[in-house]
């Protein structure tokens, strides 16, 4: 056989992977760098490649609206992650108790993940509608003084995003924890029971600690979802009232695409990237090290 | 010109030397065994012969052609893997004919090959089944059938019997031997099981840490092991080894003189003064009325034989005697052997002296 | 704590203490089931009511005279900003976008996963890790440059622009799914095929791909769900005639017209959400497998 075909055969895998690899590299890192440069430029409505150093970042962190966005991310992210994990873990533990209708219940808990955040946001916007939604429902039940205007209340609106977000994602967390629970060796549990440990004790001392890896990957995924939250906020509150529920993602979109502040938008995107990288890179690195 | 030539093949990964210079010539139709403990490099060597791995230096020649840089499919070889590696989505007939299909052999010839092989291996009734529906022994046969169908110049086996239970292993061993005598294809067979090595091989290459310790017929390997490692590796229970000091024409262990024959005396006379290792296979020892005194410490009857562990002044020795032993544990006995049965190794180099 | 003995194997033994516990268990589970189901119930019932009943009746009341009028309006005549053609054009945009995007990204994922698992070469693991970071990256960071590029290629306002972006964004995750799956296929299969004379592509077509059905289904479902439900790319990279259904829905629900028609809003939400919901109900277990495969990085 001609040696050239042997060489081709050796190169084939690399040739095949190359286009995807090059495109992915360009799409991810190339565009990232470009965006980085835009953030250091004087771009407003159109890209303007005049270098202005960190001016855009100064403007960014001088902006009250940006700080509101950051604060909202903190509140929303923290509550979203906390309640998502707590409810997900609770449901997983409960479902692990040999329930007959487990399959049906699992389907019910998980279906919100199949929906778009826009659909979820639109639905919850109606449910929490001040006047015709939850407030009216509870009033009709007899609690005349009940008020639920969180959706239009600048101080409370962000919590509505938490509710909708947890509704959408808790089932997913449950699925992850359930898989983790199922992976625990049965004989460990039997040994603990013979040793006289009660069920709650077994969960607290043995099972939950052995779920540490699942905790971490869930934390990773939820943080990621929280930082990227754009769809949900847009559908539920459109960042409002005013910009009371703005998050970095909606801030970036508004600045870059509706306010003609491309440089500022690029800067906010870079800050978002840095936040994600600060969490994800150490995690990935430690995972890869552990595998070795 | 041999069917397979391995010339000075080395392989290293970074600083780890897996193969340190292998030279083997295999004649056409010969059945060569590569045997050794895990990590000795035998599987790496097999992969290099197959073309699934590249040597760091050296060359591989098959039927006179230098194939060192050739792709596996261009080497005209067939391989049977430890896990059989049958294609799960194809039935047995398709599995067997796949290699022929890849070489664009027309369908009638492929079918004929499948029938021929199925008859040879008695798997004709399995041709429509998928691998998942077969037993371990049947899968083994199909794997061999796939290799046979290609009529290659060289067969490679990578521990094919390791996944079978003991009884099946004995049956398949006989099967492989029968097929080899029928098909007469040059074969390289990797195993860690010394019984397979001794019963199947025309020649055996005992490997240790990337080197061939000895290459020879089963008789050579068993009767005249070249190093202590080979002596202890082949043969079960392992050879008894006793460390000795040497005099001019005699040797002694723990103060006990050990008998030597003329050849051995001549050999130790000719070499310089290191200590020696005296080796005796268990079957060379027998109970007698006089000889080396000792106390029986354990008896293991296996049915046709008994392994007896005896504590003696020169150390703990294992004897292998036919039938039952009429001594009890704790009893004082005498062991006797012929010096012709002894193997002498240099204590420092562990190489055979006589 | 417990006065009775604990059965060795099943915590749900018939001791009285456990019975009470079981009741509590089920109550909590059912409460949560309600929590998850009620919004869907509200969506559905509201979409079947007329506006009078929406205002007068309660959130949870059943429609007295259920009708699909709101659905019809949402589909063909609701206002989504300037146009009042309903969700229909958006829905079809989504369909036209989703089919090529899902097909191509899945196919690329299969081939890339095949290379990364069975044909490793020096640096392939590094390449994989670099690509993987793309899954974590917040997409905000590529929006601006990408819209420039799409503009240069002249596809900024066409469905193909969206298709391209979804394919690029899907490269890391699809490759991950397939790679992790193919790693579970024995390497010796590939070696045996190589010895049999099959090359790179033949091995893929004849051996690897036929064994890929489970992961193909998972990836197709995952990609379909992700791409259909996407809003960010849909709103940034589409032109007037290429907006997907999620953008249409958001516009519809947020148009500040004089009279808010909540029933139409809900009907529109149902229309937008039904495709992925149906896929979930029909092939849910594959969906779950996809979720857990994607999140627990291997």
Task: Summarize the structure in words.
- The complex is a heterotrimer of chains A (292), B (354) and C (298).
- With 292 residues, chain A is an all-alpha fold.
- Chain A has helices at 3-39, 55-62, 64-95, 102-110, 117-127, 134-140, 157-182, 186-194, 199-207, 212-228, 231-236, 248-258, 262-291.
- Chain A folds into 2 domains: 1-32, no CATH class; 40-187 and 213-291, MetI-like fold, CATH 1.10.3720.10.
- The longest helix of chain A has 37 residues, at 3-39.
- Chain B has helices at residues 42-50, 92-102, 107-121, 136-149, 166-183, 194-200, 218-223, 228-233, 262-270, and strands spanning 4-13, 16-26, 31-36, 57-62, 65-66, 77-80, 154-158, 186-191, 203-208, 211-216, 240-246, 251-253, 256-258, 276-280, 286-288, 292-301, 305-312, 315-322, 332-336, 343-346.
- Chain B is α+β, with helices and mostly antiparallel strands.
- Chain C is mainly α and 298 residues long.
- Chain C folds into 2 domains: 16-67, no CATH class; 88-295, MetI-like (MetI-like fold), CATH 1.10.3720.10.
- Chain A binds chain B through residues 1, 3, 6, 9, and chain B through 69-71, 74.
């Amino acid at each position: 056989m001609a040696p050239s075909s042997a060489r081709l055969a050796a190169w084939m895998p690399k040739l095949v992977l190359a286009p995807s690899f090059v495109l992915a590299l360009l799409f991810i890192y190339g565009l990232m760098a470009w965006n980085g440069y835009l953030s250091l430029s004087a771009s407003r409505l159109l890209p303007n490649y005049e270098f202005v150093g960190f001016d855009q970042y100064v403007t960014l962190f001088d902006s009250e609206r940006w700080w509101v966005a950051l604060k909202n991310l903190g509140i929303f992210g923290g509550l979203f992650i906390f309640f998502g994990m707590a409810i997900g873990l609770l449901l997983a533990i409960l479902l692990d108790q040999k329930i007959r209708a487990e399959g049906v219940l699992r389907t019910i808990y998980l279906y919100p993940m199949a929906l778009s955040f826009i659909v979820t946001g639109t639905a919850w916007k109606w449910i929490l509608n001040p006047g015709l939604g939850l407030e009216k429902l509870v009033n009709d039940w007899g609690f005349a003084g009940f008020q639920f205007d969180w959706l239009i209340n600048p101080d409370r609106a962000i919590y509505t995003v938490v509710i909708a977000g947890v509704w959408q994602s808790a089932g997913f967390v449950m699925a992850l924890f359930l898989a983790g629970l199922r992976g625990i060796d049965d004989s460990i549990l039997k040994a603990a029971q013979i040793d006289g440990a009660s069920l709650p004790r077994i969960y607290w001392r043995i099972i939950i600690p052995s779920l540490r890896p699942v905790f971490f990957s869930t934390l990773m995924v939820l943080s990621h979802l929280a930082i990227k939250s754009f769809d949900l906020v847009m559908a539920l509150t459109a960042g409002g009232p005013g910009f009371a529920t703005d998050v970095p993602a909606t801030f970036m979109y508004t600045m870059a695409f509706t306010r003609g502040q491309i440089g500022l938008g690029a800067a906010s995107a870079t800050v978002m990237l840095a936040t994600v990288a600060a969490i994800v890179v150490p995690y990935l690195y430690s995972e890869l090290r552990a595998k070795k | 010109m041999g069917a397979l030539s391995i010339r000075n093949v080395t392989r290293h990964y970074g600083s780890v030397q897996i193969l340190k210079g292998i030279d083997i010539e295999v004649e056409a139709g010969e059945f060569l065994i590569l045997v050794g403990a895990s990590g000795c490099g035998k599987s790496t060597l097999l992969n290099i012969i197959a073309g699934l791995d590249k040597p760091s230096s050296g060359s591989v020649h098959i039927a006179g052609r230098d194939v060192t840089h050739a792709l596996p499919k261009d080497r005209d070889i067939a391989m049977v893997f430890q896990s059989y590696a049958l294609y799960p989505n194809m039935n047995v007939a398709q599995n067997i004919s796949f290699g022929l299909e890849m070489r664009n052999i027309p369908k009638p010839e492929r079918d004929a090959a499948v029938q021929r092989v199925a008859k040879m291996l008695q798997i004709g009734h399995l041709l429509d089944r998928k691998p998942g529906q077969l037993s371990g022994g049947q899968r083994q046969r199909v794997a061999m059938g796939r290799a046979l169908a290609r009529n290659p110049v060289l067969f490679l086996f990578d521990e094919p019997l390791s996944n079978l239970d003991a009884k099946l292993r004995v049956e398949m061993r006989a099967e492989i031997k029968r097929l080899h005598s029928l098909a007469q294809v040059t074969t390289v067979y990797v195993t860690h099981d010394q019984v397979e090595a001794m019963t199947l091989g025309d020649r055996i290459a005992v490997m240790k840490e990337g080197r061939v310790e000895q290459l020879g017929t089963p008789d050579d390997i068993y009767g005249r092991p070249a190093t202590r490692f080979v002596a202890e590796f082949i043969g079960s229970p392992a050879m008894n080894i006793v460390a000795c000091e040497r005099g001019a024409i005699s040797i002694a262990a723990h103060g006990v003189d050990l008998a030597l024959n003329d050849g051995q005396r001549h050999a130790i006379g000719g070499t310089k003064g290191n200590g020696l290792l005296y080796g005796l296979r268990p079957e060379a020892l027998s109970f007698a009325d006089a000889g080396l005194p000792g106390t029986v410490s354990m008896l293991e009857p296996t049915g046709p034989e008994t392994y007896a562990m005896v504590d003696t002044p020169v150390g703990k020795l294992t004897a292998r005697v036919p039938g039952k032993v009429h001594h009890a544990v704790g009893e004082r006995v005498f062991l006797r052997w012929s010096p012709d049965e002894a193997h002498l190794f240099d204590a420092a180099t562990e190489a055979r002296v006589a | 704590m417990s006065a009775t003995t604990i059965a060795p194997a099943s915590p749900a033994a018939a001791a009285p203490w456990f019975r009470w516990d079981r009741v509590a268990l089920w109550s909590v589970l059912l409460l949560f089931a309600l929590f998850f189901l009620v919004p869907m119930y509200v969506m559905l019932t509201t979409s079947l009511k007329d506006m009078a009943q929406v205002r007068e009746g309660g959130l949870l009341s059943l429609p007295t005279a259920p009708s699909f009028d709101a659905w019809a309006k949402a589909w063909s005549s609701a206002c989504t900003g300037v146009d009042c053609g309903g969700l229909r054009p958006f829905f079809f945009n989504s369909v036209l976008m989703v089919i090529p995007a899902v097909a191509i990204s899945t196919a690329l994922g299969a081939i890339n996963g095949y290379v990364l698992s069975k044909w490793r070469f020096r640096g392939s693991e590094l390449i994989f890790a670099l690509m993987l970071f793309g899954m974590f990256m917040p997409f905000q960071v590529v929006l601006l440059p990408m819209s420039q590029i799409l503009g240069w290629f002249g596809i900024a306002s066409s469905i193909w622009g969206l298709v391209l972006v979804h394919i690029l964004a899907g490269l890391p995750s699809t490759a991950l799914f397939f790679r992790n799956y193919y790693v579970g296929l024995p390497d010796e299969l590939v070696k045996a095929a190589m010895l049999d004379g099959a090359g790179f592509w033949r091995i893929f077509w004849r051996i690897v791909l036929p064994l890929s059905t489970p992961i193909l289904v998972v990836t197709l479902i995952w990609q379909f769900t992700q791409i259909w439900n996407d809003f960010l790319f849909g709103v940034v990279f589409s032109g007037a005639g290429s907006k997907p259904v999620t953008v249409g829905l958001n516009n519809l629900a947020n148009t500040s017209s004089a009279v808010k028609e909540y029933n139409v809003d809900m009907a529109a939400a149902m229309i937008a959400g039904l495709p992925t919901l149906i896929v979930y109900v029909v092939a849910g277990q594959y969906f779950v497998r996809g979720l857990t495969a994607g999140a627990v990085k291997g």
